[in-house]
Amino acid sequence: MRNPLIKRIPKELASEWHKYLVIILFMVVMISVISGMYVGHDSMLASVYSNRDELNLEDGRFELSKKASQELLDAIATGEIADVREYFISEGMKEADEKVAEAVEEELTESVMEAIEDGVRAQCELYGITDEETIQEQIDKAIEENLDSALEEARDSEEFRNAVDEAYEEAHNEVVKAVDEEWDKIADRYELNDAGFVPVTVTIYEHFYREEDEDDDNDGIVDANVRIFRSDSSIDMASFNYGRAPQSADEIAIDRMHASNLGVDIGDSITIGGRKFEVVGLLSYVNYLTLHESNKDLMFDAFGFDVAMVTPEGFDSLNSRIHYNYSYKYDIKPEDKIQQADYSERFMKSVITQTLVYDNEIEDYLPEYVSQASNFAITDIEGDSSATAILCYILIGVIAFIFAITISNTIDKECTVIGTLRASGYSRRELTIHYMSMPVIVTIIGAIIGNVLGYTAFKNFMVNMYYESYSLPTCGLVWSSDALVKTTVIPLLLMFFINLFIIVMKLQISPLRFLRHDLVKTKRAKAMRLPRWSFMRRFRLRILFQNIPNYIVLIFGVIFIELMLCFAFGLPDSLDHYAEKAPEMVFADYQYMLMSSTDDDDEIIITSEESAERFGAVSLLYPKENTGMREGMGTGGDESVTVYGIVPESAYVEIPVNVSDGNVYISSAFRDKFGIKAGDPITLHEEYENQSYEFTVAGFVEYDGGIAAFMNIDSFNTIFEKDEDDFSGYFSNNEITDIDDQYIATVITSDDIKKVTVQLNHSFGTIIRMFKYALVVLAAALIYLLAKIIIERNEHSISMVKILGFKNGEIGALYIIPTAIVVVLFAMISFVIGYYLMIWVFGLFLMNFDGYFSFYMSVRSMIMSIVYLLIGYAFVSVIDFFRIKKIPMDVALKNVE
Amino acid sequence: MSEAFLEIRDLKKSFGTGEAKQDVLRGMDFTVKKGEFCVLLGPSGSGKSTLLNIIGGIDTPDSGYVSINGDKLEDMNEHQLTLYRRKHLGYVFQMYNLIPNLNVKENIEVGAYLSDKPLDVEEVITTLGLQDHKYKYPNQLSGGQQQRVSIGRAVVKNPDILMCDEPTGALDYKTSKEILALIEDCNKKYGSTIIMVTHNEAIKYMADHVIKLRDGVVRHNDLNEKKIPASELEW
């Protein structure tokens, strides 16, 4: 026989539908948001990763100044380092031979002519000819007649041959000496003298492109620079979000994000390099998930830059110069980032040397793993929102707790029945299962609806949010086991264990005590004496004291509501605050990162700009594993830290002149994000090498723009094994114009930081504002549930005072006002607690991202978060009043012994 | 009637400590035979409800023991006590204690569910005269009807012992007699041993065995030679 108590469950659900509806809604909102987040996240990543294979993403690319010969490509594909020394020697020899031959011929002719002249003059003297004119005539005649035969004769002489061999030998020795000297420098710089060098073989693909002006509205004004590839490329292919690939010479497919930003749609006509094209497709190139025009760009620009695809005929019809870009793929796939770095370094040696010996020139070299355009979006998507999930779990925990309290109230109300059932032989386990069934059922309903919504509406919402930010491919729906665990298993477990704990504790009481309504473990020794206030006042105070345990739950809930409101108001505030502070988040108006401290001639790169100041910089990683939030694959999950070497008495960064070796100053952002204190040891490690460095934090630099560490430039160069006068770039208050662009890796200005804030707002603005409204609704729902608990617990007493003749208004004043007093009194305190909790949660949230973003709440928002709570409670009070009115008088008459 | 089924030996129980200590049971001895209708009679504070709770295994004595069919309750752990109540006991309380959101039939099924040998629920409903009310909820019933349901819930288990704690305490004269008649019928029809706690002297006339308690001890332990039916009781 099935336990007949099961029949109570649907009835219980029906009779208290509004309460359960609120709880289910709450769960649905929570679960659908988290589920949508994970499913959207997992679906997008799955799509991006599968595209990397399907669309044949390169392992890297290099661009040459002219088209490479097949021999050069074959040589590069072997991955071997070319014998540059031999090449230089042979080239040098060729040149030397030519020069020697030329010099010898000159010398020989001169000496033969001298010999002929001497002979003619001797003969003239013999014949007594003294007229110089006649002598000169005879000389010219003799040269004309005898020079060739005389030269021939001279060349055959042994003396001459010895002299020539000597000249060649000397010249050759000179060449070898000069090459050796030069070679040592080059070999040292590119580490080409590696005896144990193992080549990395690759397959090379032609992936030429042109760059043209793009005019999207055909108004004659250039809107963007577009990089155009051919549609028959078999590397770095594109997926089509809308439309198709171009099929005729006047058709084009352009980047979806760029098209959306500039309002271009399929069927529109755009002008590329002065030629009209019809847009037939909106695409996402696998190697351009973000529109970074150059890898040096701090931020991508989906407005001013575009990538496009045309047919080979269309490509040929354009006029701009062809960029001889070659993409490569390693024949053996590297397993991890360290191996990728190693492969790339080895392969680069092959590209550099082979290009040289085949008489070509490298314009650009970029391994894929450091390409911003193909990695930026992935790193960002991968830094997922576990912290949001944690916040949601806290919410579910609170709901579970409220649920448990409601059940505890039901148990109190039904204590005699429970006593009877227990006396009749029902076991504690059976009753526990019975009371557990409701929260479990409600959670399951919430989880099912939430998951359905998560996999549909919210997944699309999340995916659209990604589309708002990046040039991503279309994505299908993938089953996310992660989402199931985080949205269904964890909430169910939370609900299950919190309720189980409270119900088991509650049902510990013996059947007899249930029968006697003897539910409180500790008995109040004495009633508290109250001052001689009015009866109603004392009555109200008694009610307040009597409900202290309920008010503790209420306060706990109000704290959580304030936490939610801080989240709701604080996030948009923080975003705005960041935008406002952005210009201050640079050390200098211009920060130039150089490719190297020396130019091609090995001269130190200098500038005449007076405000320029050298600095050293390396990028290391700070491990996040201690925080338990290590996730994602982007940067290996660790925090990227820029370590700066600062010159003494710097005008840009203030650190003491003598920071001893092993000590560093860290930025306030670094300190605040990881809670680091002065004197703490920190270990930073290289991203692509197994090398780590240990430092002690000596102090802080007030700088919120990034996670950074600072030391004296001399220590910096010693620690990172650099030359004594090495440096990485210049800080400057003014633009530096006298350094050749080819030596500049990146320039960071406050405008770049502004770009970041615009992008942040674009990417997160919508969701943050949506979150705000969702949280306000959830806060109202929570206070509704909390207030309901208090009325439910007092139902019996309310019914009783009704019997005694109290009016509804009076009862309302008795039961609502104490709650109102508690809410108002604790609103402020709860705000403070909620605010600090929020800062803590925000810290966890930040662990998912690189960089630092301080939590900020304006005074207005602080006030608003309290006002919202009070307004919400005012509404709930009105509902409470109607609840009180509805309580029938017979509640008090039933079950009274 | 068979030999001693329920045996109470030197049962003592007190509440409170020090000056506030109150001896509720002060050494109680008696036996009840299987199928006997036994009434525990006594004024308020005589210890009858405490005694009933101890027999029911929901309270424990300070000393002495209760043995049912040779099994001592003091030797049972909590799980065994639950099983004991589940398999052998039916409970009827003064305040019915029905589950408010289950209807009459379902409330009776709550008892049937616990038993290995339950009676037919429909038959019990008919016996109790509740056939016209079986789909009503407790709050749609009168006190007498609720008590019938409560008896139904206890009886349907086909318990060895039916424990009734002032089953008519909250009912009027007429309804009380009806309820008593029902319990009498159950005793006859199903052969359950009835232990009824009451302070109503008149009820003793319908019992096989009357045990009068006062101040925690048995004052009289009599077998009733001349039982009269519940319907003929007067008070």
Q: Termini separation of chain B (Å)? A: 29 Å
Q: How many strand units of chain B?
A: 10
Strand residues, percent of chain A? 5-15%
The residue-averaged pLDDT of chain A reads: 84
Named CATH architecture of chain B: 3-Layer(aba) Sandwich
Q: Estimate the strand proportion of chain B.
A: 25-35%
Q: What is the structural class of chain A? A: alpha+beta
Whole-number mean pLDDT of chain B = 88
SSE succession of chain B: EEEHEEHEHHHEHEEE
Most extensive chain-chain interface: A-B, 32 and 35 residues
Please tag this protein with its features.
heterodimer, A: 897 residues, alpha+beta, 5 domains, nine-stranded mixed beta sheet, six-stranded mixed beta barrel, 24 helices, B: 235 residues, alpha/beta, Rossmann fold, six-stranded mixed beta sheet, four-stranded antiparallel beta sheet, 10 strands
Could you explain the architecture of this structure?
- The complex is a heterodimer of chains A (897) and B (235).
- With 897 residues, chain A is an alpha+beta fold.
- Chain A folds into five domains: 202 residues, no CATH class; 198 residues, no CATH class; 107 residues, no CATH class; 211 residues, no CATH class; 133 residues, no CATH class.
- Chain A contains 24 helices and 20 strands.
- In chain A, a hairpin with a 6-residue loop joins β16 and β17.
- The longest helix of chain A has 44 residues.
- Chain A is elongated and about 165 Å long.
- The two termini of chain A are 33 Å apart.
- Chain B is of the alpha/beta class and 235 residues long.
- In chain B, α3 runs parallel beside α5 and α5 runs parallel beside α6.
- In chain B, strands 6-7-8-3-9-10 form a six-stranded mixed β-sheet, with helices on both faces.
- Chain B starts with a strand and ends in a 12-residue tail after the last strand.
- Helices cover 29% and strands 28% of the residues of chain B.
- Chains A and B meet through α1, α12 and α15 of A and α2, β6 and α3 of B.
